[in-house]
Amino acid sequence: MEDSLAVFDIDGVVADVRHRLKYLDRRPKDWTRFFAAADRDPVLAEGVELARSYADSHVLVWLTGRPEYLRDVTAAWLRAADLPADLLFMRPPNDRRPARDFKARQLGRMARETGIELVVDDDPEVVQRLRGLGYTVRLADWVPHSSTLQRAQEQEGRT
Question: What top-level class would CATH report for the domain 5-154?
Answer without folding.
Answer: alpha beta
